[in-house]
Amino acid sequence: YPLPMRLTMHHPKLNVPVLWWRSVGSTHTAFVMESLLDEIARATKQDPVAYRMQLWGDKQPRHRAALQLAVDQSGYGKNRLPAGRAWGVAVHECFETVVAYVVEASIQEGRPVLHRVTAGVHCNLAVNPRSVEAQVQGAAVMGLSMCLPGAAITLKDGEVQQSNFGDYTVARITDIPAFDVHIVPSAEPPKGIGEPGLPPLAPAFANAIAQLTGKRLRQLPFNLA
After folding, report:
1. Going from the N-terminus, what domains does the chain have, and what CATH number goes with each?
2. Is the full-model pTM beyond 0.85?
3. What are phi and psi of 138, to 5 degrees?
């Protein structure tokens, strides 16, 4: 996005070893970027999709195609959502593949709920479309897991408190939304698909929740308090 930015990077030395997670730096980069873009769009009373398209102009054809496909297939801007639901949008490129999400979300009994995810994927030539679909669904579920309350790793007296999945939240079958994965047609050489489906899920979900509550979510997992 052609926005003026001032960035600083910090590498604190910690006693707790940390390693990589699926999609590596794009996990948190996408969350910051796409939440910020949505916040600017809302603050300036612009539609989040139209705002992104305007910023890209004719510079990012693959981003535009992925987002437009997700918008068209989801019914965004055309269909009326049930009461208590809101749209959320996010787009991110990593490993030379662009994934755009349009999601439907709500809050039920104080807990964020993801109902539907529509993906627009531009990975150039899709050698095996069913594999693309499976990878995007799996990555999105991992992205959903890092949003849910109880998904934080915490320490007490220098020891990690979560020892297994019994005391660490991951998305269960009852948390999984309906998925629609659509691929932009292309004959260009294929790009990566193993990780690009994860980064834009959290910001799309967060943007929908912010639309419902009027409060921006600035940390993962979500804190609705």
Report:
1. 26-213 (3.30.365.10)
2. yes
3. -65, -45
